[in-house]
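From the methods appendix. Each design record in this collection lists the tokenized structure first, followed by the designed amino acid sequence. Records were kept in a plain field format so they could be parsed without special tools. The example shown here is representative of the layout used throughout.

RECORD:
FOLD TOKENS (373 positions):
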């Protein structure tokens, strides 16, 4: 018969076996990455994110059609292409159907989209100027389902294969090219890319840290996964010299019949920049009306009468994930040159204040001056 000593040793051995970590350990969080995609760019990004999070982590990657429940998961990452300046209709339906369960879980949103510049304002004929691009496209879904509190959100930019665009997508791209007051980067290309790789990497690392409690991947290690996106597909079959992705300049000055626009990059925090904008408005008798404020940007109407005519300047300050410790600020006037000279002068005064004490970061410069566009 087994004596007491042998029984104790056997019990300890069993306890040790039970304590060993396994890939299906009950302590490991189980995740779902659900995506909707038309032209497959969002699919590539989904598997890129999975690689960053780690193949040792339990993360199911499923197209939206393959998901019938979110109950088995501890966290859910929801990815979509952008449609009419927001996630796809099917993603809205997914969130609506599962909102009660999602409200009890850690959630992250990401979008592939046309532009990443979160200081951008769109004005269409007869329309109201409004914020577009990047994370701005996730504003409405968060407002509509406030019980779901995303831990991380991201807007990456994306890819357009122009010959493959269908129906309304092709028409809208053509229309935006005609309406764009600040240029259309995809003009003359077969494939145009706006996706910022660092944004995908920041998002993946934020999920690792904020949801999974893991260490972030190093800059050198995380770049190994860019092969999920990069390819040898050319920007133009007719012109091999063209490129698919050109990093958008951070410092821009555009003066045309259709818009006066500037954007600059500076060393600051969002709170400090907001204070400087408020000081500028007070010093120059502009009335600031806040249109929207998020954790990453703020949008103001700056209103003032010039020569008896009230004009509105559009002022946006934003932080970008890929440029930590800095802020991007844009000013826009959509009024005609004949009446906006005073507004242009006030914008120059704002920039003098913002750029003082060496705050301006001189990178990615671009200047465009023209009488018409």
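DESIGN:
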């Amino acid at each position: 018969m087994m004596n007491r000593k042998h029984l104790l040793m056997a019990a300890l051995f069993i306890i040790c076996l039970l304590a060993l970590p396994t890939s299906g350990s009950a302590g490991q969080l189980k995740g779902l990455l659900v995506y909707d995609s038309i032209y497959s760019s969002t699919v590539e990004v989904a598997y890129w994110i999975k690689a960053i999070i780690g193949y040792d982590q339990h993360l199911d990657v499923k197209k939206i059609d393959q998901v019938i429940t979110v109950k088995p998961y501890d966290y859910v990452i929801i990815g979509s292409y952008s449609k009419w300046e927001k996630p796809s209709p099917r993603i809205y339906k997914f969130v609506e159907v599962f909102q009660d369960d999602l409200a009890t879980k850690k959630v992250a949103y990401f979008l592939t989209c046309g532009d990443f510049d979160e200081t951008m304002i769109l004005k269409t004929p007869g329309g109201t100027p409004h914020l577009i691009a990047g994370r701005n496209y996730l504003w409405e879904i968060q407002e509509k389902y406030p019980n779901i509190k995303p831990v991380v959100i991201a807007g990456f930019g994306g890819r357009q294969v122009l010959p493959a665009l269908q129906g309304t997508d092709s028409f809208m791209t053509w229309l935006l090219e005609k309406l764009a007051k600040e240029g259309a980067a995809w003009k003359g290309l077969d494939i145009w890319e706006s996706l910022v790789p660092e944004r995908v990497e920041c998002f993946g690392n934020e999920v690792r840290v904020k949801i999974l409690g893991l260490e972030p991947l190093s800059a050198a290690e995380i770049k190994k996964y860019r092969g999920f996106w990069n390819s040898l597909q050319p920007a133009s079959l007719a012109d091999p010299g063209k490129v698919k992705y050109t990093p958008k300049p951070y410092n821009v000055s555009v003066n045309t019949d259709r818009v006066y626009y500037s954007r600059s990059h500076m060393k600051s925090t969002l709170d400090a920049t907001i204070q400087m904008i408020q000081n500028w408005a007070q010093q120059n008798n502009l009335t600031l009306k806040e249109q929207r404020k998020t954790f990453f940007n703020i949008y103001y109407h700056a209103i003032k009468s010039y020569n008896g005519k009230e004009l509105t300047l559009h002022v946006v300050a934003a932080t970008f994930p890929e440029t930590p410790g800095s802020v991007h600020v844009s000013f826009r006037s959509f009024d005609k040159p004949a009446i906006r000279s005073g507004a242009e002068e006030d914008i120059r005064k704002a920039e003098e204040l913002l750029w003082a004490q060496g705050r301006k970061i001189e990178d990615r410069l671009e200047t465009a001056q023209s009488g018409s566009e």
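APPENDIX NOTE: Residues 251-369 form a domain with the TATA-Binding Protein fold (CATH 3.30.310.80).
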